[in-house]
Design a protein that fits this description.
Length: 269
């Protein structure tokens, strides 16, 4: 019978080797590092970004910002003092190529320049964007002027979204809304509802493109199918934001099955 204590009287000394030589290189995000400030109530943005940002060497990192589940101009404005400190949680002390704020309606309420300043306060060398700014860049890249807008927002927020897009140079002949201000409910709006809403808007007015606003809306998987049905380009908050992040980071790859926008490069102005 083996004695379990037989070797304890003569233990072997562990060989310890410290300060082994090593070399370093950028192992993750070799081509681009993209950071996103995501709303704490958002079910959708990371899910859709993971479907889009599939190129080798392109990685994205996110941090969640506290916000209300109810979307009003007041709750949107309340995020302003939290944006910089949340962005600073993304790879603290390190650089990003692009940093984005992931809320369309709050970006409209606060303004593109304010959002950019708050993000750059945390990441001074990064290029900045937000879904409203990205949507305008996307629609310009598509050569679209007359835009149908679909949102989940209530009227006060919708009026600000329309004004913002008109100030960016677009005509808005038709605007539709689900008038739902509860963010988790917005994330659950199904494909059939989105399809029917887009078909209704485009049947009532001739437009060059459709923009579906709100990062909570899940639509990326459906965009190519919708485009084939209505024969004009469609983009959404997440769809445009991911595209803009890629293009700002210098990633000009084409991405099949993501719609017309992902065949476009950024307009240089």
């Amino acid at each position: 019978m083996n004695n379990p204590n037989a070797n304890k009287s003569n233990p072997q000394k562990t060989i310890v080797i410290e300060n082994l030589p090593f070399q370093i290189e950028k192992m993750i995000g070799k081509r681009a590092r993209i950071g996103v400030v995501v709303l704490s109530t958002d079910y959708t943005l990371e899910h859709e970004f993971r479907k889009i940002l599939t190129s080798p060497g392109v990685d994205f990192y996110h941090a969640r910002i506290a916000n209300s589940v109810t979307i009003t101009t007041k709750t949107l404005s309340d995020m302003k003092p939290l944006i910089t400190q949340t962005a600073d949680l993304i790879l603290p002390g390190d650089d990003l190529d692009v940093v984005a704020y992931g809320c369309t309606s709050a970006s409209v309420v606060l303004g593109d320049h304010v959002i950019a300043g708050l993000l750059n306060a945390a990441k001074p060398t990064a290029k900045t964007t937000n879904p409203a700014f990205a949507a305008a860049a996307a629609l310009n890249a598509l050569g679209a002027k007359r835009i149908a807008i679909l949102t989940p927002y209530e009227r006060e927020v919708n009026e600000l979204v329309q004004k913002s897009m008109e100030e960016k140079g677009f005509d808005i002949p038709i605007f539709g809304s689900f008038n739902e201000n509860h963010d988790p409910t917005v994330a659950a709006i199904n494909e059939t509802s989105l399809l029917n809403a887009v078909l209704k808007l485009t049947s009532l007015s001739e437009v060059d493109a459709v923009f579906i606003s709100c990062t909570s809306v899940k639509i990326v998987d459906t965009i190519e199918k919708l485009e084939n049905k209505i024969k004009i380009p469609i983009t959404s908050s997440n769809h445009a934001l991911a595209w803009h992040c890629l293009r700002l980071a210098g990633i000009d790859d084409n991405f099949p099955n993501l719609g017309k926008l992902y065949e476009c490069n950024l307009n240089k102005k």
